[in-house]
Write a structure and sequence with these properties.
CATH superfamily of one domain: ANL, N-terminal domain
Bound molecules: adenosine-5'-triphosphate
Number of helices: 18
Organism: Citrus clementina (Clementine)
GO molecular function: ligase activity
Protein name: Acyl-activating enzyme 1, peroxisomal
Strand order of the largest sheet: 2-1-11-10-12-13-14-15-16
Distance between the termini: 68 Å
Radius of gyration: 24 Å
Family: Belongs to the ATP-dependent AMP-binding enzyme family.
Oligomer: single chain
Number of strands: 26
Pfam families: AMP-binding, AMP-binding_C
Amino acid sequence: MEGMIRCSANYVPLTPISFLERSAVVYRDRPSVVYGDVQYTWKETHQRCVKLASGLAHLGISPGDVVAALAPNVPAMYELHFGVPMAGAVLCTLNTRHDSAMVSVLLRHSEAKIIFVDYQLLPIAQGAFEILSKTSAKLPLLVLVPECGEPVSTVASSSGNLEYESLLAIGKLREVRRPKDECDPIALNYTSGTTSSPKGVICSHRGAYLNSLAAALFNEMGLMPTYLWCVPMFHCNGWCLTWAVAAQGGTNVCQRTVNAKEIFDNITRHKVTHFGGAPTVLNMIANAPPSVRKPLPGKVAVMTGAAPPPPQVLYKMEELGFTLTHAYGLTETYGPGTVCVWKPDWNSLPREEQAKIKARQGVPHLGLDEIDIKDPVTMKSVPSDAKTIGEVMFRGNTVMNGYLKNLKATQDAFDGGWFRSGDLGVRHPDGYIELKDRSKDIIISGGENISTIEVESVLFSHPSVLEAAVVGRPDDHWGETPCAFVKLKDGCVANGEEIINYCRDRLPHYMAPRTVVFEDLPKTSTGKTQKYVLREKAKAMGSISKKGTSKL
Ligand SMILES: Nc1ncnc2c1ncn2[C@@H]1O[C@H](COP(=O)(O)OP(=O)(O)OP(=O)(O)O)[C@@H](O)[C@H]1O
């Protein structure tokens, strides 16, 4: 249209850096970050992040360089989410449960120039450096992060590494770098490695900005929330809430470890209004002993995601007084991409029914454009009949830029103009989607698809079951049969036959487990069950039936 121009007056590249700059003015004296007895205001957090950015520049970091971090949810980890982008660099947060070998692989792949390492994780980083030093890879510079608020320990000072506060001391309060293009990378996030080796997902300032605002909105985060950090900040930048909390001038309550006692104590002490956690964290809270539980100080909104939440876990959390929001997404969608938007009409339904509705993955959030369930071959949308299974596909401004150094994987993921998630689901008549499985996890038994999520949901409803995961056990007759791995609640007893009969009473017989194994479930640190480990165990058991002889 004639008369339009684009200039800095009407176009500024979107970046979450602007959230911090605004909060430093609007909420300047309000608490930004709290950790034990340490507390900063938004003005202080802003100044510390500016100094961090300047310190990084002093160390030779240029725009586009990767800066890694290996740390739990401590204040430095929060500051890195702003300080690194403010230096024009790309933040690469590493999973704190990785071993030295994996850290060395990711450091080499990302070509990180600097790595910030929490003092407790120093041996892991040192092990990674040892491995790297035997290769041609250039070693990154290690910046040690000592315990916040405590003097540098002798171990830390004798390690000979530059230390976090000293780096800030070098930094100057000067103008920060904003991205030239809003599509410039802000973060390099490796996937959880649940199904294969972690992939390096490139996230942009623009995507991070939009996803953070969407996350604040669907979490019903009003102004100045108090957010308790249970979601690891290394996982999709804490599902984008690192930036979202700054947008709303909230208080970040950091905690090094996540357990039910610490969560209840912090909720009461700081009057927490919001937190998030994978279903396994909610399960831990829901099953916490009465000695640990405390009455909630007010409304506490909880966002869950990262793995399918069993309706029973949602139900139990709401019985305890928490208000749950269920979101779903991938590292490739900056964490949350959909949300099960709650409708007031559902409030009159029985609680169990409400939990089943909430366990659905829902609809795209405001920052994403579209989500569809398609036949992966024809790319036609499946009917909204809650039955026909297809692949979940995303399209919009909160989908990654691509996988680092893996054009083939990026092209495969974007084939057909959609991002293919590898998740299988159905669409309900009301438009809400529901996940049935990951394509790698679904069981095919006698030609029938079995959703392991559906079987697990029945197992979770058994009064003695604490956790459950179902995988396919190879079978000479059926191809595969469901094999359940079950962890019982403390003090509960149940045998395999009882569990199988319980499932057969509630599911078509072909879906009920044929095998039950009682043991602890292997988990990733992002709260997902490592089904490939269980699949290997089921495979080693061999077939139950002999060819052509089995009946259901
Ligand atoms: N609310 C949810 N309900 C069901 N599954 C979920 C939910 N949120 C996330 N997921 C699962 O988590 C996956 C995304 O996980 P993430 O990006 O952390 O890495 P990953 O896919 O586990 O790792 P990798 O791709 O390396 O195997 C989704 O594809 C989906 O299978």
